[in-house]
Amino acid sequence: MRVALTGNTMTYFSGQPLYVFEAAREFKRVGHEVDVISEWSDNELKQILESEGVNCLTRGNGVYDVAYFSELSRGVEARTIINIVHSEYECETPIKGCGGYVCIRPSIKEHIINEHNIPGDKIVIIRNGVDRDRFKPVAREQRDYKLLVAPCTLDPLRSAFINHLASTASQERRVMFIGDNYGIRINKNEFVEIVKPEFNVEKFIQQADEVHGILLGRVNIEAYSCGIDSYIWNPDTLEVYKFEPENFDEEYNIKNVVKKLIKFYDALTKESR
Known about the structure:
Blueprint: E1 2-6, H1 15-29, E2 33-37, H2 44-51, E3 55-57, E4 63-69, E5 77-85, E6 100-103, H3 106-116, E7 123-125, E8 146-151, H4 159-167, E9 173-178, E10 192-195, H5 202-205, E11 210-214, H6 218-225, E12 229-233, E13 240-242, H7 248-252, H8 254-272
């Protein structure tokens, strides 16, 4: 099967690009021909994908059996187009006229039905996928303080969450943010560290006492896979709860996520025959 995955921001180590990256690797591993269509920089995402036989292109190449669109890509032709919707925010507005829609959590499904009139029978919930061979528990270093790690883009959407977390930092409770700053002011605190994002984020997550993120993003899933407690914040109300999923491997292992993506494609094409 010829598979295309699209995302216009594959230069960043953040939620949507990492979803596309993990899915492309697994589609290739199970024997499909895979192209990822995006804007590219020569970073680890591109290098790893190409080393594993995934084609990293700037526009489509012929007609694909199925294209999984994280973002609209006009240069891609496919017999079936499935839109992956990653959040409830305007930047993730669903693409009209697709054969089907994948939402990575139930609240997104509810949102695109109510706000965008997408038919419920065209939507399936398939979770974010994580590479469990990479994100796994390791021995943690000994230290005399607690370390909270928050891998996230430092932007206005997360400003209240970031400054609240920074305000809790102390000698006994250090806070580390991993991300680029896109125009927010962070309250000064000597026990807050800001680290530039990098591909191998697992080395920070595996050494954390807690990991914090918003709206059940990849960071919570990666932390749970590493055996680290993680907490999910509402960026507007600052309500927080611990991430304690049932059937984690079945729902979040990238191997099972790709099986479900293929099953959804098969169901859509069966209906159209």
